[in-house]
Backbone:
């Protein structure tokens, strides 16, 4: 299952990118930017659910 392992390893970098984007939109919290953030969070949670536990 190398693909699953690659996805799991990529999650922290995705989270780091999301944190950077969150900091970038803090000054301009428009509904559109918040919806975009919510969609990205849903994507991360979906990827984690598909990857399963790291144990």
Residues:
């Amino acid at each position: 299952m190398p693909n699953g392992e690659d996805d799991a390893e990529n999650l922290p970098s995705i989270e780091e990118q999301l944190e950077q984007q969150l900091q970038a939109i803090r000054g301009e919290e428009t509904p559109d930017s918040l919806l975009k953030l919510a969609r990205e969070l849903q994507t991360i949670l979906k990827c984690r659910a598909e990857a399963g536990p790291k144990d």
The two ends are 14 Å apart (CA to CA). The mean pLDDT is 74. The CA atoms of residues 14 and 48 lie 11 Å apart.
